[in-house]
């Protein structure tokens, strides 16, 4: 989507991830030895690493963005360049994610502003992960540069393959 197509207040559902014991352990073996130690202690339900919860949310975000771009390409629309993110802030995990929890992810556009670069606008988002009990398990704010429709049309690409 182009900058002009994104309204403040837009809420986008990104999908969900179920955190099975096997999934949590596989992540722990690669990235978080505390989980392996937790599992070695017995059959108590495991708790997912916060970064695992965030990574799963990022996967949902990328998959959703890819699907939106594919739909645009299928309709023959120009695809905007993909922008970079100057980062995120205030990442927190208010409640733990236990094995068998299902986390639903969403992103809400909370702000937009022009930038000094006429081809790009800056969009502020609130990213949220909520478990099946309605508890927030991941919250952070992010910003991303989004290509403007008003930019030079030579910077857009038709079709599904455009990597910037």
Description:
A hairpin with a 5-residue loop joins strand 4 and strand 5 (120-131). A 5-stranded antiparallel beta sheet has the order 1-4-5-6-3. Helices cover 27% and strands 35% of the residues. It has a single domain (3-156), classed as Hotdog Thioesterase (Thiol Ester Dehydrase, Chain A), CATH 3.10.129.10. Helix 1 crosses helix 2 (33-40). By secondary structure, the chain is of the alpha+beta class.
Secondary-structure blueprint:
Blueprint: E1 11-19, H1 21-31, H2 33-40, H3 50-74, E2 78-79, E3 87-92, E4 101-114, E5 120-131, E6 136-147, E7 157-158
Antiparallel strand pairs: 1-4, 2-7, 3-6, 4-5, 5-6
Helix pairs in contact: 1-2
Q: Cα distance, first to last residue?
A: 15 Å
CATH superfamily: Hotdog Thioesterase
Q: Enumerate how many helices there are, as a single number.
A: 3
Unreliable runs:
151-164
CATH topology: Thiol Ester Dehydrase, Chain A
Radius of gyration: 18 Å
How would you spell out the order of helices and strands? EHHHEEEEEE
Beta-sheet strand percentage? 25-35%
User: Could you tell me the mean pLDDT?
Assistant: 90
Reported for the largest beta sheet, the result is:
5 strands, antiparallel
Strand order of the largest sheet: 1-4-5-6-3
């Amino acid at each position: 989507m182009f900058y002009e197509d994104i309204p403040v207040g837009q809420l986008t559902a990104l999908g969900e991830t179920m955190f099975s014991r096997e999934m949590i352990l596989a992540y722990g073996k690669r990235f978080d030895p505390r989980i392996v130690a937790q599992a070695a202690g017995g059959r108590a339900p495991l708790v997912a690493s916060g970064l695992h919860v965030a990574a799963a949310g990022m996967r949902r975000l990328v998959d959703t963005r890819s699907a939106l771009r594919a739909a645009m390409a299928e309709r023959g629309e120009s695809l905007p360049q993909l922008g970079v993110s100057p980062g995120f802030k205030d990442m927190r995990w208010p409640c733990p994610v236990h094995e068998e929890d299902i986390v639903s992810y969403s992103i809400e556009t909370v702000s937009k502003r022009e930038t000094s670069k006429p081809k790009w606008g800056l969009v502020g988002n609130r990213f949220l992960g909520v478990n099946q009990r309605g508890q927030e398990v991941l919250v952070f704010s992010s910003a991303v540069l989004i290509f403007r429709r008003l930019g030079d049309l030579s910077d857009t690409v038709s079709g599904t393959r455009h990597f910037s």
